[in-house]
Amino acid sequence: MARTRLELRVGDLILNTITRRARRQGRDIQLSNVQFHLLEFLMRSASKVCLREAISQGVWRGELSPFSNIIPVYMQRLREKVDSGAEPKLIHGIRGEGNMTCCEQHPTDPRDCKFPCCGANQ
Known about the structure:
There is one protein chain. With 122 residues, this protein is of the alpha+beta class. The chain has one domain (7-116): Winged helix-like DNA-binding domain superfamily/Winged helix DNA-binding domain (Arc Repressor Mutant, subunit A, Orthogonal Bundle), CATH 1.10.10.10. 29% of the residues lie in helices and 19% in strands. It is built from three helices and six strands; from the N terminus they run ββββαααββ. It has helices at residues 33-44, 52-60, 70-83, and strands at 7-10, 13-16, 21-24, 27-29, 91-94, 98-101. It has a four-stranded antiparallel sheet with strand order 1-2-3-4, covered by helices on one side. The protein has a two-stranded antiparallel ribbon with strand order 5-6. A hairpin with a 2-residue loop joins strand 1 and strand 2. Helix 1 (33-44) packs across helix 2 and helix 1 crosses helix 3.
């Protein structure tokens, strides 16, 4: 049986999968049930671009079309909650590809980041 981490960390964002508590820079982040599952999915895939199909399957168990407008709405609301007033931004939309959370050890200067979240290789 695969072991899963009980506490996920990406940068200064912490998600406890047992208490369902999210914290960033010392503040609690209130999440709906869907937002919690979406954030957990993105954090378990940190530094990887998550396609809409994977998000649909991983969060909605395939019951939502990957082409639904609901996915970008949830992504935007989650981004607002997680990244509001905080730097660096951790949740990124990659145009034409999908969404991702930034690398777990994000550099202070985005120019030093090798992942697409900060525009590397663009």
